[in-house]
Amino acid sequence: MSRFRNSAVMAALAILFLTSPLTSWAASEDYRFELAGQPEKTGAGTLVKVRLVTVADEKPVGGIEIVETRLDMGPDGMPTMTAPVNPLPASEPDVYAFEAHPTMAGNWALTVSAKIKGEADLVSGAVTVTVAK
User: Fold this and answer.
1) Closest CA to 66 of 42, 44, 96
2) Number of Cβ within a 10 Å radius of residue 85
3) pLDDT at 7
4) Counted domains in the chain
5) Segments forming the whole domain that contains residue 38
6) DSSP structure class, residue 95
7) If you write DSSP's letter for every residue of 34-66 in order, what string do you get?
8) pTM of the predicted model, to two decimals?
9) What sections of the chain are H helices per DSSP?
10) Could you say which of 12, 14, 61, 113 is the most buried, measured as most Cβ atoms within 10 Å of its Cβ?
C-alpha cells in the first residue's frame, strides 16, 4: 500500500511540474542589470540609470518593483564604504533611475534587488558606476 501511495505522490508532483508556467521556474541567473547610459552629475549627486534584461535574448524587462538598493566601493576593494542611493520616479520605459550620493571618486557598485511579476524569487544584480573627481 505504501508503495502505491509513493507512486501516486510522485505522479502528482510530475504532473504539477509539467503543467506549471515556465516563468515561475526561472532563476535569478536568467536576468542581468546593466547601465542605461553614463552616470550624470546632478546638483544633488549622481544620476544612474539601469535596466533589467533577460540574459537569453537581451530584451528589457518592464514593470518590476525595486525592493532594495545599495551603493558601495566593492569594485575598488572597499565594500564597507557605502553611500546613500535613492530610487527616482520612472522617466523612460523599462529604465530605472537612481540618485546616488558617492562620497569620493572611484568605482562604486550599485546593487539592486527587484521583484518581477510572475517570479517567486527576487532578482538581484550589480552594476559598476565610475565616479570622476
Assistant:
1) 96
2) 22
3) 54
4) 1
5) 26-131
6) B
7) EESS--EE-SSSEEEEEEEEETTT--B--S-EE
8) 0.77
9) 2-19
10) 61
